[in-house]
Amino acid sequence: MKQRRALILYATMTKNTEKVANWFQETFEYYNWEVQMIRLKGKMDWTEYEGKTFFDDYDVICLGSPIGAGLPLQPVIDALSLNGDGSLLTDIKKELKGEKVEKDKITPAGSRWRRHPAPYPGIYDKRNSRPYGIVFSTYGGGFYGAGECQGVLSTLKVFLQNYDVDIVGEFACGGKETGPAGLPVGVKPRAYFIPGPAGKDAPEAEVCDAVTYTTKDGKKWPGSYFFHYNNEEKPGPKEEARARAFISDVVEDYFMTYDGERFIGLSQVISIS
Asked: Which residues does residue 174 pair with via DSSP β-bridges, in sequence order?
């Protein structure tokens, strides 16, 4: 039986998404998979991958990004969007202003990754020949909790589907933020009824950092402004366990069949904490 292969493409800002990517890699390797990791970043030198790294050569493609203004990070857009050079939004803005757009300078990302000729995106692959896809993200959850990542996951799925990759998994977990989301610099959020010692509630308090509050009388209280408690420590052991179990489920359920052939992908494994 040939060795299975996984390609993990990811971008990261605060190392949260990179942690998840590393846990994915280690779990694939536990099952004796060959894994290639590519961190997507600004001003990528594609000479190492151009014409050498093709989606068709892998059993699973993992694509991950944290959230930047509700979207995947720009390096992910540059690498996977069909226009390929990150100029799409800029061109749209120019067109709305009536400015000239030089479309001949656009370099399609489609030339970077080989696309399977058939069947078409969105059509079930009866030949079971296309790679499977996993999308993943990390989020702070300052306002919406896990729902904050849904837009990014949906966009990442579209990116892979454009390359005829069949999505079989979605993963997301909490991660520390560099500061309270959505607030002006220097403005701290107010906190109310923060759980205190012995189950009592602290009075109105001001956030000092992600896990500590100082009340008007100067006392410090543990708590979290973010959706997840102690967000500053995430992703941590609980998130690691979920990430490893998630990849284990994908590998075992889709690839460890009685005859050694991969299972037909008609459903998804979803872990969004």
From this structure: 139
Structural element, H or E, at residue 29 = helix 16-30
Whether residue 172 contacts residue 272, with contact meaning beta carbons closer than 8 Å, is answered with yes
Average of per-residue pLDDT across 6-34: 95
Name beta bridge partners: 64.
10, 136
Q: What is the pTM of this model?
A: 0.74
Q: Is residue 236 pLDDT above 70, yes or no?
A: yes
Q: Which amino acid is at 176?
A: K
Domain architecture of the chain: domains with CATH = 5-177+229-272 (3.40.50.360), 179-225 (no CATH)
What single DSSP character describes residue 93? Answer: H
Write out pLDDT tens, residues 132-144.
999 999 988 765 6
**Residues 254 and 169 sit within 8 Å (Cβ to Cβ):** no
For the chain, give the longest Cα–Cα distance.
68
| Residue 52 CB neighbours (<10 A) | 9
Query: How many Å apart are CA 161 and CA 142, to the nearest integer?
Result: 30
Cβ atoms within 10 Å, residue 175? 30
Q: Which helix (H) or strand (E) is 182 found in, with range?
A: none
On whether the CB atoms of residues 71 and 54 are closer than 8 A, the answer is no
